[in-house]
Amino acid sequence: MKSPLTLQSCYRLLKKEFQKYLLKDKSYSFLFEDAPPNEWIAIDCETTGLDVRRDEIISIAAIPIKDMKLLTSERLELLIKPKQELSAQSVRVHRLRACDLEEGLDPQSAARQFLHFVGSRPIVGYYTEFDIAMINKIVYPILGIHLPNLQLDVCNIYYDYKFKQLPPYQQYANADIDLRFVSLMKDLELPSRHGHDALNDAEMAALAFVKLRHLIS
């Protein structure tokens, strides 16, 4: 017997149908198919800066998760050549130089590869809002819509998990929960990789997601 639809699930269904109607290129209708059971895609991207309107994506990494296992050998790694010059500050953060991106893809080619790789699977990440906003910039010209995939933020899952462990008096006091990536990984007893690298960050998000699913189940 199917569980009754909640208001939130009804909203998601209506939004999905409306997005499907607006889809510009119908060859991407596969994005609206039912996701394969027990499969997700952990993603991360590096950019020229933190301004969604002005800055550009320069790398994307995506790691499949199937049956709670990371399929790192099937990962996707893309370098994208930006139109703007890289600032010294951004190079210091992600360690990608102009010469590293010289043979990078154009944004539309990268977007097409990303869409075919991800398919209809839910997207997992750490603070996904920014990454998805940047990815939407390059997929929108192709699709005419933003990514329709379900998005799962490790931060939100971790926060809910830690919040439920707090005694009532701390819950009412809105106790502060450390959501920094390094702190989150340490608390979950998971290995940390060097940050601000798309593949490393995607792998850490995937590990945290799998561990949290195990702890919550």
By oligomeric state, this entry counts as single chain
- Assess the beta-strand content as a share of residues: 5-15%
Q: What is the number of beta strands?
A: 6
Reading off the top of the CATH hierarchy, the class is best stated as Alpha Beta
Might you state the CATH topology name? Nucleotidyltransferase, domain 5
Note the total helix count: 8
CATH superfamily: Ribonuclease H-like superfamily/Ribonuclease H
The level of helicity is: 40-55%
Shape: globular
Class based on secondary structure composition and strand pairing: alpha/beta
Number of domains: 1
Radius of gyration: 18 Å
Q: At CATH's second level, what is the architecture?
A: 2-Layer Sandwich
What is this structure's SSE topology?
Layout: H1 7-22, E1 39-47, E2 57-66, E3 69-70, E4 76-79, H2 88-94, H3 107-118, E5 123-125, H4 128-143, E6 151-153, H5 154-165, H6 168-172, H7 181-187, H8 198-216
Parallel strand pairs: 1-5, 5-6
Antiparallel strand pairs: 1-2, 2-3, 2-4
Helix pairs in contact: 3-4, 5-8
Task: Explain this structure.
The protein contains eight helices and six strands. It has helices at residues 7-22, 88-94, 107-118, 128-143, 154-165, 168-172, 181-187, 198-216, and strands at 39-47, 57-66, 69-70, 76-79, 123-125, 151-153. The chain is of the alpha/beta class and 217 residues long. It is globular and about 55 Å long. It has a single domain (9-216), classed as Nucleotidyltransferase, domain 5 (2-Layer Sandwich), CATH 3.30.420. Helix content is 43%, strand content 14%. Strands 1, 2, 3, 4, 5 and 6 form a six-stranded mixed β-sheet that branches.
